[in-house]
Write a structure and sequence with these properties.
The complex is a heterodimer of chains A (314) and B (737). With 314 residues, chain A is mainly beta. Chain A has no helices and 28 strands. Chain A has a four-stranded antiparallel sheet with strand order 1-28-27-26, with no helix packed on it. The radius of gyration of chain A is 18 Å and the shape is globular. The chains are: A mainly beta (314), B mainly alpha (737). Chain A: Belongs to the WD repeat peroxin-7 family.
Chain lengths: 314, 737
Amino acid sequence: MPVFKTPFNGYSVKFSPFYESQLAVATSQNFGILGNGRLHVLQLNPTITEITSFDTADGVYDLCWSESHDSLLIAAVADGSLKIYDLSLPPTSNPIRSLHEHAREAHGVDFNTVRKDSFLSASWDDTVKLWTVDRPTSVRTFKEHAYCVYSAAWNPRHADVFASASGDCTARIWDVREPGSTMILPAHEFEILSCDWNKYDDCIIATASVDKSIKVWDVRNYRVPVAVLNGHGYAVRKVKFSPHRMSVIASCSYDMTVCLWDYMVEDALIGRYDHHTEFAVGVDMSVLVEGLLASTGWDELVYVWQHGMDPRAP
Amino acid sequence: MAMRELVTGGAACAVPGTSGSSNPLGALTNALIGSSSKNQERLREIPTATTTTTDGNFFAGTEEPFAALPGSEFEHPLQPNAQGSEFLQGFRSADQNRFADAWDEIQRPQIPHSLGRDSITNIPLEHGPPQRVLSSFLHSFVHSGHGAIPFRPTSLPVLGLSEGDKQCIRDRSSIMARHFFADKSEDFINTQVNALLSSLDIDNDVRSRGPMPRRFPELEEIWNESQGMKPGPYATDGWVTEFSQRQIEHNDPNAWVRSFERQHGANGWATEFEREQSQLASIDQMRGANISSLAAMEHTRKLAHTLAQNNDPKFQNSKFLQFVSKMSRGEITIEDNQIKQATISAPGDWAAEYQQQYSGGQTWADQFVNEQHSHGQGWVNEFAAERQLHGSVDGEWVNEFSKLHVNDWAEEFEHQVAEGVLGDSAGDNWANAYDEYLNQQVALKQNSESSRGVYVFSDLNPYVGHPNPLKEGQELFRKGLLSESVLALEAEVLKNPDNSEGWRLLGIAHAENDDDQQAIAAMMRAQEVDPTNLEVLLALGVSHTNELEQAAALKYLYSWLRHHPKYGSIAPADQPDNLYYADVARLFNDAAKISPDDADVHIVLGVLYNLSREYDKAIEAFQTSLKLKPRDYSLWNKLGATQANSVQSADAILAYQQALDLKPNYVRAWANMGISYANQGMYEDSIRYYVRALSMNPKADNAWQYLRISLSCASRNDMLEACDSRNLDFLQKEFPL
């Protein structure tokens, strides 16, 4: 299975929603504590080669692909800015936009998959902001969290609903048509680093926390979690629902592993990959190829593999 | 617009790939007009972007989605949607200064960031590249969580971190540490973060601009309030007073119990305690939206006051805010009347520890309640029995009791702080080590501030009185006995303080022996004596490049050119007050055209490209000069350091090996070799090279620090003690090369 070495520490990896062989990786120097960043766009053929890369003056913590234009990428940069890149233009003409409103590190971005015209950014300034690609300023700022917001995720079915995960130990559900959050989920007793919606049941959400667990919630009855997935040895950094299988979740953790879970069955842990030698901080599942996984970590490696295979196998 | 065009017309000479404008005129224009030439270019490219995207509507017709995007009215309730479209029309026509300004406004914040942040990516040439050292240093910080290894403060070379860099390190490491070290106590996290910050010479005054005060402004207020608050009687305190009073009045414990019971009912005391507990429990509700819970705030206020009585500034700065913020985030919960960590009770956490210290996990009040219930008799009986047992006089018990238990627990806590029983012993050790280290640092800093640029001579120099110490020094230097050579040369310059060659050689010997402070000091003396010595000027230019002092480096390199017999004519005689990088680089490129076979010019170019972080060009320049001077070991070292800078550590090792083949006693190259191995994650190998470097010059302090980092990265904590005690024999046996 192919591997790609990045000069900086990996932070996030995402498959293109348009081409099954394209993916992008966000990286930061010095673990994102200090230094530059780089966004790589990679091609699977079947080894991994770099199509292009973009340098930034600060670490890149996250990225997302546009759902409407196959060449557009949005990067969340540690200096608080969001940068929009157009792959059809040479690197010297990029980024085509730099949106700088967040007062602190931008830690997560997510593109709306229903409306396909807007995206969210989550920041350590405790806010989530709503943007469109064409406006130079944000459309809205959602400020309710009491600590860093680490990620925000659009609901896959409702164009106006999204969830946010924060270090204030809550996840919140928002409807952009409403002035405030519509639901506060005190989901964990420790910081929540990531959240994602089930792609088949629009009421199911998963949260991942520093408390090492992933919890699955039904927003119609949020007093008790639908499932608690224990198995990671350290903080769970990202959680992602499968685009193909309703009950399958992928996660990565500071315990350096990537895990696959089926939250509906009793022995929920269905796969564990310990191919990274440093914190695993980015994981994604391809929408176009079932079972194709990608991960990145602070060992500066990007792996792409088919579920069930050894990511390190040559 | 026109003026900007005019002035920035030379933007083509800006070095591509650098994020900041290297064009001084451009920089000037930016300062004057408040824009960037780069933005101008980008601006012009946007219409192209429109046409090249697959969907022609990408930038066009933007008005509609904006207006249609639900919820946008919440953000701009007073602005009609037309505002957006007006803006966008301006965008499409793209000929309005108004738009340019608006776009620049968005773009501008990017520029200072890139300039400020990039400083870190510069890596000195000669000795261990701090950038790469920083990387492995952060690495050992990040990994210290795994083996619960205390991360010891380490003194690092000057890294040239800007204030912005420091702020980033401070904020990000504090936030991230809470993710990595979730298993560890808050105490552990603080020690780790503090050790990191103090090693990097970053002020961890959380009240200045750290993340915490901003995160919890309301708690900050309480803190300030409590600072000015008069110590009012607490519930327990009042009880003590009351108790003592009554005790004096009646001098009979039973009577006191009766009167207490009369006042509060049989279980009054317990009730009161429970009330307190319920206040504590309400902290639980502070999680999430209930942060304004009054009872919790009341308790927080008390806590703030209690902790304010401790005068240790370090304590006030971190632990208090950490603990309070932890409570406010619900990381501490109340279960079974005990304060607990939300998950596994972390060792060394002071709150938990405090509870444990306190009557073995049960509060005394609990015990009292239990006893009252189980024995069916008041504790007074027990007290009486105990009094008989100890045969103590009336009142002594009260004193003792109030001293140990009844007295407000703040005092007890302070007491414990004073006694150092907080945290487990390991945590304590770190704290001590940390304090010790801070003191050392203060002393060191005072030392270095006063001594910077002042040459410090060795005591007891055997070469004083030597008939020809310069010759001896040259001979020793040639043989590679650097430390001996330093002594001989010191004797020379003591004898002839005006001998610039003596000072110059001394400087070079120090540089090769990995002591930059002394090297710079010696070179400065050499320059005083002979201001036009080309080799001295070049050495000073390199040293200042290493220290990330661009202005000084440019000054010396420019002087080098000015005083060079061949190139003096291309440099304007009147040296401008402010030298710009691009000008100096241009002059040297001209010089290289005049005589392409002058290795020195290529060396200076290599140094200059390191200043501008164009490592590929720098490597090329050094390789060119190596073709002309293949046996210059310091040149091979420069090449290696530059390759290490551009993340080519494997190539760097080859270059260092060349340097070492030419000069086996080149301490600096041995140490650099270690750094390159460490950068590739080959810590065991790096240790061997550091140990070798140290065996040649045990005074190379930097190498000791690098060694320590590699030891902890390689999980060789068993060897840390040998490293700390500088037990070279032991280390050499363990890590032979």
